[in-house]
Structures
1.
Amino acid sequence: MDRPTRTAPAFGASWSSLNPPLSSWIMDVINKNGFTKMTPVQSGTIPRAIKNQDCVVEAVTGSGKTLSFVIPVLERITKRDRKYKKGELAAVVIAPTRELASQIHDVFHQFLSSLIPPEDPNENQASSSSSPPPSSSNKKAPYPLPILVTSGTSNPYETFQSLGSNILIGTPGRLASFLLSPRGLSIVRVSELDVLVLDEADRLLSSPDHRRDIERIMKHLPKQRRTHLFSATMTDAVEEIIGLGLRNPVRIVVNLKEKKKGEDAKERRTPTALQNTYMICRHAEKTLQLVRILQAEVQKAEAAKFVVFFSTCAAVDYFYRILSRIPDLSKYHFTSLHGDLPPRIRETALANFINHPSSHLSPAILLCTDVAARGVDFPDIDVVIQYDPPTDPKSFSHRAGRTARAGRRGKAVVLLGKGREEDYIDFLNIRKIPLTKQAYLDSSLNDSEEPTSVDPEALKLLRQIRKSVLTDRELADKGAKAFVSSLRAYTKHEASFIFRLQDIDFHALAISYGLLRLPAMPEIKDWKKKREAYLKRMREKKDEGGQEEDAETQVEKEMNEKEWLDWQDEEIDWDKFSYASKSREQSRILNLNKKKEQFLIKSNEELIEIQAKKKLKLQMRESWSEQKERKLKKEERHDKIDKRKQAQWELAQNNGENLGPIASLRAIKKQKLNLKNDDGDEKDDKDEDEDEGNDQIEWKSLKKEIKSEKVEKRNLKKIDKGGMFDDLD
Ligand SMILES: Nc1ncnc2c1ncn2[C@@H]1O[C@H](COP(=O)(O)OP(=O)(O)OP(=O)(O)O)[C@@H](O)[C@H]1O
């Protein structure tokens, strides 16, 4: 692969073909960026969104969707007859992550700041904010800059007031609190709002928390507005769109067709400039292959920038520390990005990675979770590697789409475990995401056949990683946490018939993680027992004699297929294995001594009792599968109760009776609705239809509302436990 260049992107019409033409100050910024033509999604969306049409837009990653809504928003609000006053909201843009929101904010900022005249101490800027936006020939009056509201935004109300912003960009939770808190309600005027944009709409709507926040925001905003939804994977969310307050939306789908010699043209959901590949290897060889891909791409294709996706924050954190210590990767510059990092650090990490002057002599690698999967416009990414396939298959094309943007070429590789995981290739193909094979890389970084038994270099790498881990006990803790969290994520795969925990060889995976010992998990214990039983059966079969040789080969074959490797815990004295951090080590020693003292002063009977209690506790620990079964049964029970309650409620409705909190909540809602209508809130035919539909689904939404409040309360309690999974907001 050559270094990506801007090759033959599928560009649409020229900007000057737009009728009415864009404002000259907007064209100035477009020209400054060197965007000579519109992309197809831009030529399809901009003219419609500027007029009075709601748009639902689906186009592949990196096709220029951001400008497809930024330009219409700016055109509409700056060309309006009555100019927006300071602090009067004109447009709200919602995005699922703070990284994406911040990027959209930067684009708006770039346009609007182009209007700010150079510093002139004699000018009175305060009086100019409500003046009409200037043309490029008269850049005297700046139009208020947009404001970003996400986690980590400090003093948003003060910034909002001082800037006098008309455009608000943020993540759903923060925007909802910003707009709906008593202070927000008194400061931010929304009655004149013109446009609402949901970027990565399918992601926003598939998360119950985000959806709830968005619905709250939508209810607060005036109905007479334009609403636009954007995503690269919109089809999956079509049903979600219904009832969201869009008015006769126009659906804009930018299709890509790929035609191979002798075949009919096929539709695909990923950019044509993307070389989308998979690599099959054993779980024990995953890290080895990751290291080799990083080396091979630099060596063969002079690749300089990589993004590597893992399924959990803990895995990113661990591999960030481990990979940077592997001698073969000493010239690589690593950055980590995940939702457990504080907002400021996330911001700096992203900026550092983007601005890193990478070359094939000093390549830059971003290790991240799905926090960077959607929308983030990394410039010049050569290769995307998915160490773990995403738990949500919709994320796959978004992750791969961090490369091959705006017509540049790029490559993506997903690592798939030998065996059942290979079914993922067909699974994606059906979803119009075709993958081609990337061969296994041998020790000389050449393409080769997959080895018939585990690559011996995997064990060499295990020893190398262990050597690093032995320098600091904290690395061993992080490794165990990463391993456990990744296994838990594995059980959360939506394609659960492909990604099954029972197919994983824990020893093999532990080799890839460079663990010193296997963590104490009920799942691993069960697995070990089953493994022992299986081995025993195989040995017995072998001992039954007759065709001893055949039986032996059979055992070996099966062992090989199952990747059952000899695993040995690292032989170390765990009491003496220390933390590099002095304070941590001190407290560990303190705790250790305390435990030893307690142990010494206890009588024999007491010790026996303690051990018995411990044993009982261990026996009571459930595996995830048992927990899952219990949860399913509970859900079934709740469903039954719900159905009964719904039937009672419907009966009471018919009889005009009152029925507890749900019925009262419904009455309050109805009352609010009537009050609004009495205020002269005009409703068109479509709204009437929606109300009728809403009546039917009201039972469900009331129930959901009550449930989500309960869940929220429960989550608040859980928050301080520090989740291993990503907090995307
Ligand atoms: N008309 C254009 N000509 C050339 N480059 C463009 C044009 N419009 C946008 N770009 C560039 O293309 C890149 C991708 O744009 P953008 O981030 O809007 O893609 P997207 O479709 O939103 O992708 P994703 O689905 O991943 O969010 C950006 O770097 C942007 O500056």
2.
Amino acid sequence: MELLPHIQGPDDLKRLSREDLPRLAAEIRKVIIETVAKTGGHLAPSLGVVELTLALHYVFEAPKDRIIWDVGHQAYAHKLVTGRYDRFHTLRQHGGISGFPKRSESPYDVLDTGHSSTSISAALGMTTALDLSGQEGRVVAVIGDGSMTAGLAFEALNNAGHLRKDLVVILNDNEMSISPNVGALSSFLSRKLTGRLATRFKREMESFLKKSGVGEQIWSVLKRSEDSLKSLLTPGMLFEALQFEYVGPLPGHHLDTLIDTLDNVRNLEGPVLVHVLTKKGKGYPPAEKEPDRFHGIGPFDPATGEPRRPERPAPPTYTQIFSQTLLRLAMDDPRIVAITAAMPAGTGLSAFADALPHRFFDVGIAEQHAVTFAAGLAMEGLRPVVAVYSTFLQRAYDQVVHDVCLTGQPVVFALDRGGLVGDDGPTHHGAFDLSFLRAVPNLVIMAPKDENELQHMLYTALNHPGPVAVRYPRGAGVGVSLDWRLEALPVGRGEVLREGNDVAIVAIGSGVAPALEAAEALAAEGIEATVVNARFAKPIDADLVTEAARRTGRVVTVEENALAGGFGTAVLECLADRGLTGVRVRRLGLPDRFVEQGAQATLRRELGIDAEGIRAAAEALAAEGRRTGAAARLRPVRSG
Ligand SMILES: Cc1ncc(C[n+]2csc(CCOP(=O)(O)OP(=O)(O)O)c2C)c(N)n1
Ligand SMILES: CC(=O)[C@@H](O)[C@H](O)COP(=O)(O)O
Ligand SMILES: [Mg+2]
């Protein structure tokens, strides 16, 4: 009889004998692999923590005890043993269960996550609140070695060591971020100490032991082996210095060891860090072999691990075009350097890293540092390109404002995943960048209508003397051919793609292609639309926008960004500033709520920003305008 279908919650799990747990672990892995093979998802991270998940739920008393999963991309086993087995096949689907912990989904999900390194801060807040309000419950934060590279995690450790509240931090160390983990901390944890560090340590230890008088003998034993010297430098030192009790390293797939240790740790007072060594992708050979490819993966054949091929070959992705264009430009310009915060593959920088390793920097999950590091590079004459997902740049807003834009440093932000990303859902949609960046002085913001324009925009950005953000969507391009000769676009100038007098559709970025499609459909109905490719959200092409508005009296704006403060707002500001009264404006974009997960096409349809939604909005506006004669009453006035 299978065990997993009968686990409705941790109480059922606790009723199993320890001998049954490895069988349950195998069933969980099977369900995760079979499901993710169909839905796509974060396979390798979840496979790596199956035993850890079982041990945590076996020992702790969730939901009274709070178990927090950092990033949350490894929480599939947690979902399966906390009452979501029956719905697990809907993972990451529209209307289905989330790929990340979500408070609205289950009382066992105590923190909504998706962005990394928040777990220790939130856990410290929770344990402090429990303490102050006299409530029972232990708080556990499970954080990966990659996520531990973020400043936020260290801010929390520092504060936790000071507050000395009861808190368990589990460091899930698999020596991987999405790609192999980087940085001095990673080397320290894995004890790959540099020769220099080991030598210095040896010298200092020798001098100390000899001076102490009693150390001669100890020293003679130690010096026989470099390894034993290195073993004195334990990862524990770091955490003990931060006032944590350090336990480990533990073999992360050995259930008895995990359960016994957690049982002991559960009642310790003060902050404790349990260091657990796991294998990313554990139990599925293709994922063990290529944990980076299986970190987050689309549908695949579970028998082989090979990706399921789309029925029709898709055009290259925006990321691929960014990748090849940047490398091409960097080959000719030694000032160009590339920076990623732990996303070399996702942002398309792997090719750059291979070709120009000394000009490539993976700084770890440290977006804030990435941006200020870029500012420093720019101040000394280099042309840094920070390739970052729109959603993760949110974390580095102050650095964009204070370190880059205040003094107008020529840093290029290659903002991938601008707009709706699909199945990762609300934590990952690049919904806000046009809004939050538009407020920043000195920054130029552009968004290409297709992958060919992306090439020209990157070229333009790298030839601009100040900071520039180029934002482009997740996924395939439009399928246009690529110009070989790259040209600098005039900054702040859009283009008219089609002329008509009934309505103007002013679109930016991924909104342009469906706007053109909508215009075709409108023409078939006898409605002639002007279509403007704005290209720049800042500075906006005010002449072009006002001319289109004046001519038609009706403007539909299209963007894949929050309407609040976004591109449509920029158009409204422009019309108001130019004193263009009487123009009817309908803004299409993301509403003032977090957009849920789902395929990009589904979400765009639902939100009315696909071709049909734009057509319908333009048609309605044109009809409205005809009824009221709005265009005739326009009185354009140039301001200033
Ligand atoms: C702020 C932020 N930047 C980047 C990411 C993208 N990201 C998701 S998981 C991950 C690696 C996490 O590594 P680790 O914590 O060691 O977990 P593992 O996948 O190894 O289990 C990265 C970089 C993110 N989620 N949040
Ligand atoms: C968990 C996380 O933040 C990343 O793994 C993210 O899911 C990657 O998204 P892409 O699939 O768009 O690269
Ligand atoms: Mg890791």
